[in-house]
Specification:
single chain, 687 residues, mainly beta, lipopolysaccharide transport protein A fold, 26-stranded antiparallel β-barrel
Length: 687
């Protein structure tokens, strides 16, 4: 007997009524449905749709065998599962629940129109797993028809796809590039998901250097779990040998860490060279943490030679911190490896123990504050002067605002230091006391429309002269320079060993124009510091060597989003000649195509110009460049590089030329060429 329905929607159950509690129905919609009671089959034709717990099917014709619980779909078959994976096939056989079955001549398109798989035949073992035979994978959209020369694809006798974990695994795999087989691997697996890295080989990197010769880097990534992974690299260089690199990363709820180490038997120096760079931190609760970091190299030029950086010091540190809005406490133990040319390691100052404590007390008026702080340091040298110090300071601060809009702040402080210095003759103990008092004033003047603001500022500091005896070694206060950012600081010295003393008057004017909310179109700030007495402890080129300091300021001009001009300057107080200039010009969108030029000048110091740019030639191709040139003396090129990048839908190509124009002991000037190809969705996260 046959029953026919037109545009009929019915629910078919997978077994007898007694089994309904265990099995789920699917919903069938079709233009025409025919039931064959003799064979217990249902045939549907025309605009067919099937919905179940495990997915949906569309096809030209569907036959459902109720006795065998087998659903057969034919003609333009589309199967979409709950993970949004689309399967296109000529013929599909599935269990009635759509959970498992077999598929002929299929194409699988992953979610978000992602990478694709093609195969002659596949078995769907359950709701999430597919086993494909004589199959191919590619992120290139040309893979949809399974024909033609695609930029790249991976062919394999067998491919397993986990739709839930979004992982593809291969057996006996071959990488084809435009139809040409280039690499064979017995097994391979990788992730095709965003933010889901998978263990496996990373794309190789190729290059050539004047000092290292031709080189190729191969890498393997190992994901242990969601919190821990490793990367192992082998870098083979024709002129230097083979460098082995290991990397480790850990990120947990309360702890994190990162490690990188490398080693090479250098053919150029006939020595074994290496480095270690790692850090780890534990957070006990909010505001409390402790950690370790280490930077160690076998020699002073290893970082410059193999890692592309040239630090003056390598720093190893152990620390513990506790912080809240009203307190801060820290302990540090630090060791420096001095990598500068000609430096005696025994004379490098090592702050082996340092403690810092600060406590803020908010007084009854809820505005005034009392700040207490202390610093303890033990500084050691293998050769030369070692010292220890204790610094204690108390400061009272009270701000207030007048009815006319004047903003004032009163501060008074008292500081006491004790130093114990080991010299070649005897151990000296030096003490000093440093009282000071200051008043700061400013008054904003705002235009009626709110676009223009002028703020005059002034500060008076009263303090006794002296306080920097020569018996106290200057270890942490060597850096000193007056600029627009520290003009209103009571002391512009870094650290504790030196402090500005004597009475001073400081004034400045800040002029801004723009619609506000961070969109200042024009700004000019300029100011000066006047000293009532001479101070021989100030450096001769810091900007305050005379009683009237140099003029310092900052100016910027940003009339449009694509144009920016800024300058931070220090001008001689007598003739306004430049003593420090940091100028920058930016054209374009910093997130797209742009160019920026920076000029830096320091009286008695370096003079340099640098440039950086990016130009998008097409939607997928852009060129980046940077250069840095020393203008002092005869001038020389320090560094220049150009990089062209092409981003296809399924791969990324980059070619870089880099010129280093200076030498560093055994590291000569060189020209490097680097080529990198990246097959997207292989060995990386999707963007």
């Amino acid at each position: 007997m046959r029953l026919t329905a037109s545009a009929l929607t019915i629910s078919l159950f997978l077994s007898a009524t007694t089994a309904l509690a265990k099995d789920q129905p699917f919903l069938l919609t079709a233009d025409q449905i025919t039931y064959d009671s003799e064979h217990n089959t249902v045939t549907a034709e025309g605009h067919i749709e099937i919905l179940s717990e495990y997915g949906a099917v569309q096809a030209n014709k569907i036959i459902y065998d109720q006795t065998g619980d087998l659903l057969t779909a034919e003609g333009d078959v589309l199967y979409l599962n709950e993970q949004e994976v689309a399967v296109f096939a000529d013929r599909l056989e599935l269990e009635g629940s759509l959970k498992a079955g077999a598929i002929d001549q299929l194409r699988v398109r992953m979610k978000n129109n992602g990478p694709a798989l093609v195969a002659k035949r596949a078995i769907k073992t359950d709701e999430n797993h597919y086993k494909l035979e004589s199959a191919a994978y590619s992120a290139c959209k040309a893979c949809e028809n399974g024909e033609g020369l695609m930029p790249w694809k991976i062919r394999a006798d067998e491919i397993a796809y986990d739709a839930q974990e979004e992982v593809v695994s291969y057996k006996n795999a071959v990488l084809d590039v435009y139809g040409v087989p280039v690499v064979w691997v017995p097994e391979l697996s990788h992730s095709v998901a965003k933010k889901k890295p998978r263990s496996g080989m990373l794309p190789p990197r190729f290059g050539r250097s004047g000092s290292r010769g031709e080189e190729v880097t191969l890498a393997y990534y190992k994901k242990v779990n969601e919190n821990l992974d490793y990367t192992f690299r082998t870098r083979a260089m024709t002129e230097r040998g083979v460098q082995l690199v290991a990397e480790n990363r850990y990120a947990g709820k309360h702890a994190s860490g990162e490690f990188r180490g490398s080693i090479i038997a250098d053919d150029n120096t006939d020595t074994v060279r290496s480095h270690v760079d790692g850090s780890g931190e534990v957070v006990f609760r909010k505001g409390n943490r402790a950690g370790l970091s280490a930077q160690v190299a076998s020699d002073d030029t290893y970082y410059d030679d193999f890692l592309g950086t040239n630090p003056s010091y390598l720093k190893s540190n152990a620390y513990a911190e506790s912080a809240s809005p009203l307190h801060y406490a820290a302990f540090n133990s630090t060791f420096f490896q001095d990598t500068r040319d000609g430096q005696d390691p025994g004379q490098t100052a090592q702050p082996l123990a340092q403690a810092q404590v600060e406590r803020v007390f908010v007084l009854d008026d809820r505005v005034s504050q009392l700040n207490l702080s202390g610093n303890v340091l033990a500084l050691h040298r293998g050769e030369g002067i070692s010292s220890r110090r204790i610094v204690v300071q108390g400061a009272y601060n009270k701000p207030w605002m007048s009815a006319d809009g004047d903003l004032l702040e009163f501060t008074t402080s008292l500081r006491g230091d004790i130093y114990n210095v080991d010299s070649t003759n005897n151990d000296d103990i030096i003490a000093r006391g440093l009282p000071s008092m200051s008043v700061t004033w400013q008054r904003p003047y705002v235009s009626g429309g709110g676009n223009h603001t002028v703020v005059p500022q002034a500060m008076v500091i009263a303090a006794p002269r002296g306080g920097n005896p020569s018996e106290i070694p200057n270890e942490d206060s060597v850096a000193y320079e007056l600029d627009s950012t520290n003009l209103f600081d009571e002391s512009r010295f870094a650290g504790f060993d030196r402090i500005e003393t004597g009475s001073r008057f400081i004034y400045g004017l800040d002029n801004q124009y723009g619609p506000g909310r961070g969109h200042t179109k024009y700004r000019l700030f300029i100011g000066q510091s006047l000293r009532f007495d001479e101070d021989s402890s100030l450096p001769s080129l810091g900007g305050t060597e005379t009683r009237d300091s140099d003029w310092v300021g900052y100016t910027s001009l940003n009339p449009t989003p694509w144009f920016g001009l800024s300058s931070r300057f220090r001008l001689d107080n007598a003739d306004l000649t430049a003593r420090r200039m940091d100028n920058a010009l930016t054209l374009g969108d910093i997130n797209h195509s742009y160019a920026t030029i920076t000029y830096t000048y320091l009286d008695g110091g370096p003079e340099e110009v640098s440039a950086r740019s990016r130009l998008y030639m097409t939607e997928y191709t852009y060129f980046e460049s940077q250069a840095r040139r020393d203008l002092a003396d005869d001038g020389r090129l320090l560094l220049a590089s150009g990089n062209i990048v092409y981003e296809h839908e399924c791969y990324k190509l980059s070619f870089t030329v880099r010129r280093r124009g200076f030498s560093n002991r055994n590291v000569p000037p060189s020209t490097d060429y680097l080529f990198n190809i990246e097959l997207l969705t292989l060995g990386r996260n999707l963007d």
